[in-house]
Amino acid sequence: MPIEQVDTPSEIPYIQILDQDGNVDEELEPQIPSSDLVDLYRTMVKSRKFDERRMKLQRQGRIGTFAPSHGQEAAQLGSIYATRDDDWFVQSYRELTANLWRGLEVEDDLLYAAGYEHGMELTGEENQTPIAIPIASQTCHATGIAWASKLKGNDRVTITYFGDGSTSEGDFHEAMNFAGVFETPTVFLCQNNQWAISVPRERQTASDTLAQKAHAYGMPGIQVDGNDILGVYHATKRAVDRARAGDGPTMIEAITYRMNVHTTADDPTKYRDEEDVEPWRERDPIDRFRTYLLEKDVLDEGDHDTIEEEVTEEIAEAVETFEDKAEELGDPEDMFDFAYSDEPPYLAQQREEFTDYWDRHDVWGDHHG
Ligand SMILES: Cc1ncc(C[n+]2csc(CCOP(=O)(O)OP(=O)(O)O)c2C)c(N)n1
Ligand SMILES: [Mg+2]
Q1: Domains held by the chain: number
Q2: Each residue of 281-307: pLDDT tens digit?
Q3: Looking at residue 224, which CATH number applies to its domain?
Q4: 68 in ligand 1 pocket by Cβ < 6 Å?
Q5: Pocket lining: 294 vs ligand 1, CB cutoff 6 Å
Q6: Residue 2 CA to ligand 2 centre (angstroms)
Q7: Which tens digits make up the pLDDT trace of 36-55?
Q8: Which of 197, 207, 263 should be mutated for ligand 1, with most atoms under 8 A from CB?
Q9: What is the DSSP string of 74-141?
Q10: Cβ of residue 133 lying under 6 Å from some atom of ligand 1
């Protein structure tokens, strides 16, 4: 008997609408109202400027560590824009841009980064989960939340964000498997930024693409140029519409690049060459979107400068609000209070080190005025 080929999906569509030089594929160009285009651009600029500012604040010891979005603004914004406000947003820890779109206040981000749980307080009305540090754990929550929407019979979609490294984690595969079997309305948005701290994409998995992992779980996989906001929007809208129509989950691999440090506790010069980063500067998602908006006459150079000035001012005011609130809240020692009923010895030691540090430094004293 001859050996036959099993008919199984192997095609992965690759989507790009706005190329590196800002040329647009007019057939695929989404019809986004001008006012939204400007809001999207403003959010991207604000995210970039805030990343720059919070890096300085961290280096000055005014906040703790964080993971910058720098370079990934289009991947996050094009995708979140394709969802509804009442859809579920299930994040990891690098989603500043998406959070700003969902209404995160700059001062709350800073409070959280300075150790105040208050900055991440959720009322239960936001339809989102807090930052998740354990890699890929949030993908399981996203499948569960989407399954709940399905059982309840509402039409909410859940979008979850994770990285290239996360696709090697057990949680990711369990979440994808369950989502495939139960046809949950989940959109798995992988930001392939080419790095998992110091592990490059090619050492992460032998898979040709990350998107093809979707096929093993019976769902479509799409690749998209993650620095093209229009392409990401198009791909995500397709996935969101499919999920809302009851046709199940999709995985999207947005190809992008982590332009900056993994977190402020990392030094990429130890493991990657500037030459590897350089080509990605040419693909900057904000520059590309600006070229598109200028050509479309949605923006002119003057508008661009005004937006930069306005967001810089907004951020400066938010930094002041943050420092006032932090001073009001006082010592953030309560970060130690809620994980254990009986404090383990290592945590007691960390608490002691922390209060000792706090007592020795006039933490908020110097920064006013
Ligand atoms: C379960 C688990 N293992 C290890 C870590 C340490 N860690 C933090 S970030 C990271 C890399 C994640 O890479 P990726 O999924 O590509 O996301 P990116 O940071 O690039 O956005 C690792 C291994 C962790 N937080 N959780
Ligand atoms: Mg990564």
Answers
A1: 1
A2: 999 999 999 999 999 999 998 999 999
A3: 3.40.50.970
A4: no
A5: no
A6: 43
A7: 999 999 999 999 999 999 99
A8: 197
A9: HHHHHHHTTS-TTSEEE--S--HHHHHHTT--HHHHHHHHTT-GGGG---S-S-B-----STTHHHHH
A10: yes
